Amino acid sequence: MGFFSFFSKEKKETLDKGLQKTKESVFGKIARAIAGKTKVDDDVLDNLEEVLITSDVGVDTTLKIIERIEKRAAQDKYMNAKELNQLLREEIAVLLAENNTSDVNDFEAPLPNTPYVIMVVGVNGVGKTTTIGKMAYQYKKAGKKVYLGAADTFRAAAVEQLVIWGERVGVPVIRQKMGSDPASVAFDTISSAVANQADVVIIDTAGRLHNKIGLMNELTKIKNVMKKVVPNAPDEVLLVLDGSTGQNAFEQAKQFTKATEVSAMAITKLDGTAKGGVVIGISDQFKIPVKYIGLGEGIEDLQVFRKNEFVDSLFS
């Protein structure tokens, strides 16, 4: 299935529902921005700029989009709301395509190697452990053997939450006592996964940003210890961000991309916010693929990010 897997009606409905607040906010603002206008003039562009910035697309990305629309609108000054929406839709789709946000494979797709090791990073409260649980569910549902590692050993709640998810999904969780060396947990998890021929290993890490150097050293140590068992580990470093925090998510992305080599992102809690534009801005600014989006509390509500379906839903 993979890249060409069918985007089901249920997934589309979940996506549409999850982006509803952003859609209502953006379209309401666009309608007001061009009310009574018969051409795209400076006022329309200024209003549109404000719409995108307040939707947390981000200043730099907004200016890029406005510049493109300005060039295209110059060819045909007369434009109604529908045409402007279509123009925005096209330019955002192009932007996502340009910025390394290619559609990724579904959970059913063949893995490049086994065990496929994913190290998950992100601050506390962004939905990191929940995202791991939902990923484990999706991989298991696709017939893959999954192991979880509770390497956030500084928070009892994080370990307990991961254990609950492991029991719920039916996958083993490797843990040690509180305060243990996180790298030791990662080592044990990957060793057990290899011994039991697991397909996927997902390692949770501590979500602390108060000491960037300490975080960097800890994540580097975890990666180095993983390589003693699986030389190419981790295959993926997944950064989880809370979409509802808007510009704060940009700052977290900036800090974590400095601290470690982030290769993919998951943006959660989009269903509870009108700030869905953050997906566009973060993708553009960091040139790191958005791999998953969180659209609700349900176990099925973590979706593989498909840029075309995302833009279609946003502008439908």
Structural write-up:
The chain is an alpha/beta fold and 316 residues long. The chain is 51% helix and 12% strand. It has an 8-stranded mixed sheet, with helices on both faces. Helix 4 crosses helix 5 (81-98).
Keywords for this entry:
12 helices, 8 strands, 316 residues, elongated, alpha/beta, 12% strand, eight-stranded mixed β-sheet, disordered N terminus
- Overall 3D shape: elongated
* Strand line-up in the sheet with most strands: 3-2-4-1-5-6-7-8
Rg over CA atoms: 21 Å
Strand content: 5-15%
Quaternary structure classification: single chain
Query: From the helix content, strand content and strand pairing, which structural class follows?
Result: alpha/beta
Low-pLDDT ranges: 1-5
Number of extended strands: 8
Largest sheet geometry: 8 strands, mixed
Q: State mean pLDDT (0 to 100 scale).
A: 84
Distance between the termini: 26 Å
Fraction in helix: 40-55%
* SSE string: HHHHHEHEHEHEHEHEHEEH
Helical stretch tally: 12
